[in-house]
Amino acid sequence: MESSIPKFSFADFTAKFPQVSMPIILGEDSHHVFSTENDPLPELLTQQFILPVHPGNTDEETTEFLPCFMIQDTGAFIALVWWKAGLLEYEYMLATFTEKGQLIDKHIIAFTRVEGDQIRSRVATIDEEWELHLAEGRSGTNQDQFDPTSSKTFSLEILANGEIAV
């Protein structure tokens, strides 16, 4: 007996992500822009394409996913960024796929997380060469106590085969 639950194609999923050219900056409030410009993902698309690759707690009652964008002109792979909102945790995931929808690589590139009495944040810039420049730091929960000693920067790169190199 066939299931009555519709199965979507990978093209249905990627159609929810508008193509954008680089550079782009992902920070604490970037999701507001995406939420006004992009439709939310239907639950079935989330279950079929995001939950299998997204790490961590994804309680359906308290977790929301929002498509952000597809990196334009990647050639042999598809690079998507989505935003995950959970309890005291917000993340931007970069995932690369083959054109058939097989996962190549994934990395959480930006986030805001409440950890005890601290807020840990990371912002990301993706440039035209697919290099990601990440900056991370901590502050008190009232956000006026930034700790400069907690700051660190690092880089990632999306390779021509879709792998994300640290």
Describe the overall structure.
- The chain is mainly β and 166 residues long.
- The protein has one domain.
- 13% of the residues lie in helices and 46% in strands.
- It has helices spanning 10-14, 30-37, 43-50, and strands at residues 19-20, 24-26, 64-71, 78-86, 89-97, 103-115, 118-126, 131-140, 147-158, 164-165.
- Strands 1, 2, 3, 4, 5, 6, 7, 8, 9 and 10 form a ten-stranded mixed sheet that branches.
- It is globular.
- The model has no long low-confidence stretch (mean pLDDT 87).
Q: What gross morphology would you assign?
A: globular
Strand content: over 45%
Q: Give the number of helices.
A: 3
| Oligomeric state of the chains present here | single chain
Number of strands: 10
Summarize model confidence as the mean pLDDT. Answer: 87
Integer-rounded radius of gyration: 16 Å
The H-and-E topology, N to C, reads as HEEHHEEEEEEEE
Structural class: mainly beta
Main beta sheet: 10 strands, mixed
Estimate percent helicity: 10-25%
Number of domains: 1
| Uncertain stretches of 5 or more adjacent residues | none
What separation lies between the terminal Cα atoms? 46 Å
